[in-house]
């Protein structure tokens, strides 16, 4: 836990760190990739870098961790640590990389805050960083051990056995193993990282959810094409949807993920599951119109939980854009659902953590960074 000497220093400096978190994050990544350009090949998502989403997620998570140590000193924020550890394990992150991040992050903190980073302040934030780093390293070591791998062996090649065009923008890939290594059991709701060589030769990692439990020979995941909408098109999702065919090979990580659901939100699979559950109903909201031929309760407009009778003693899983999840989570809490019964999964950098530190830290400036 945080030492008695460092706790008041962190409490006093959290507002100024939160207020400058975006600038710290920007300078950190500029310096990091200047010193270690190899990290853009196979480790960091350069699409998120261009949109500054990864920057806010990483720096924000350190600040949220510090805030938690001050507010609840007797326990670590396990929910935050679990999510990060699973994401790191899916990328094969090693303990040595925490040293690299530390050196560049603290360079950025000093570069932004200048003389405000006294030896006492630097020592306190150094303690925070290594408390978080060692907690993650230990969790990741456990995840690797449970899978019987080392960071460098989380990757293996798979061959595309089937390509299913679910919709115009969604493709499901069913892949088969190409070697004799044992396929460890995975569940829908977990995700794999696909490492894709781009036309310029740089490998880009992306996480995609599994959409069916493994059968020991095959693995299945779905890709939704990311179209611009004012932002650059998703380079990896478009490449996969447009060019990858049966017989092609993909480099994929082992499955990870701390939010495991009984099914994935593909409509026919979901409806089949709902029909097998006694007393279960499916509700769908359409922004335009309220008609459907599917066996669901249809509502017009955006999701409004006032239209639904919430079951007692349920666990709620949220997935989608962050503004949507934040609105639904607030509505559930207003309806009396305990926060511990609400879990969420972010597709991409977890900017929720960056938002939390600016919202919850007294005197901190509020940032409007959300994943679109």
Describe the structure.
- The chain has 372 residues and is α+β, with helices and mostly antiparallel strands.
- It contains eleven helices and ten strands.
- It has helices at residues 7-19, 21-35, 46-51, 53-71, 78-91, 95-113, 119-147, 235-243, 267-275, 322-334, 351-360, and strands at residues 155-165, 170-177, 191-197, 203-212, 218-224, 249-253, 283-286, 297-300, 316-319, 342-345.
- The strands form three sheets. Strands 1-2-5-4-3-6 form a six-stranded antiparallel β-barrel.
- The two termini are 36 Å apart.
- The model is unreliable at 362-372 (pLDDT under 50).
Short overview:
The protein is 42% helix and 17% strand. It has 372 residues and is of the alpha+beta class.
Descriptive labels:
10 strands, 6-stranded antiparallel beta barrel, disordered C terminus, two-stranded parallel sheet, 372 residues, 17% strand, alpha+beta
Task: Explain the layout of strands and helices.
Elements: H1 7-19, H2 21-35, H3 46-51, H4 53-71, H5 78-91, H6 95-113, H7 119-147, E1 155-165, E2 170-177, E3 191-197, E4 203-212, E5 218-224, H8 235-243, E6 249-253, H9 267-275, E7 283-286, E8 297-300, E9 316-319, H10 322-334, E10 342-345, H11 351-360
Question: Strand-residue fraction?
Answer: 15-25%
Q: What share of residues is helical? A: 40-55%
How many helices? The count is 11
Strand pairing plus helix content: what structural class? alpha+beta
Strand order of the largest sheet: 1-2-5-4-3-6
- The total strand number stands at 10
Morphology: globular
Distance between the termini: 36 Å
Give the overall pLDDT as a whole number.
Answer: 83
State the major sheet. Answer: 6 strands, antiparallel, barrel
Rg over CA atoms: 22 Å
């Amino acid at each position: 836990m945080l030492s008695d000497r460092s706790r008041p220093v962190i409490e006093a400096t959290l507002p100024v760190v939160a207020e400058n978190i975006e600038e710290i994050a920007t300078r950190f990544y500029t310096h990091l990739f200047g010193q270690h350009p190899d990290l853009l090949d196979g480790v960091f998502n350069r699409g998120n870098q261009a949109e500054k989403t990864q920057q806010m997620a990483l720096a924000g998570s350190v600040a949220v961790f510090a805030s938690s140590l001050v507010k609840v000193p007797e326990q670590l924020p396990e929910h935050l640590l679990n999510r990060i550890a699973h994401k790191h394990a899916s990328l094969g992150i090693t303990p040595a990389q925490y040293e690299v991040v530390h050196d560049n992050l603290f360079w950025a903190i000093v570069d932004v805050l200048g003389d405000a980073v006294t030896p006492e302040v630097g020592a306190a934030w150094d303690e925070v960083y290594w408390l978080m780093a060692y907690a993650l390293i230990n969790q990741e070591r456990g995840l690797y051990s449970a899978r019987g791998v080392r960071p460098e062996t989380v990757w293996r090649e798979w061959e595309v056995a089937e390509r299913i065009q679910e919709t115009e923008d969604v493709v499901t890939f069913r892949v088969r193993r190409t070697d004799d290594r044992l396929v460890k059991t995975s569940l829908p709701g977990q995700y794999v990282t696909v490492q894709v060589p781009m036309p310029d030769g740089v490998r880009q990692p992306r996480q995609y959810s599994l959409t069916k439990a493994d059968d020991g020979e095959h693995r299945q995941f779905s890709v939704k094409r990311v179209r611009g909408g004012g932002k650059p098109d998703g380079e990896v999702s478009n490449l996969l949807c447009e060019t990858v065919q049966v017989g092609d090979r993909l480099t994929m990580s082992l499955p990870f993920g701390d939010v495991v659901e009984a099914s994935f939100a593909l409509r026919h699979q979901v409806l089949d599951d709902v029909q097998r559950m006694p007393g279960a109903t499916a509700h769908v909201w359409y922004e335009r119109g309220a008609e459907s031929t599917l066996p669901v309760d249809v509502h017009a407009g955006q999701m409004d939980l006032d239209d639904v009778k919430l079951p007692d003693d349920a666990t709620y899983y949220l997935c989608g854009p962050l503004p949507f999840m934040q609105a639904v989570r607030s509505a559930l809490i207003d309806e009396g659902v305990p926060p511990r019964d609400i879990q969420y999964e972010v597709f991409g950098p977890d900017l929720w953590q960056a938002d939390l530190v600016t919202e919850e830290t007294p005197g901190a400036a509020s940032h409007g960074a959300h994943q679109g």
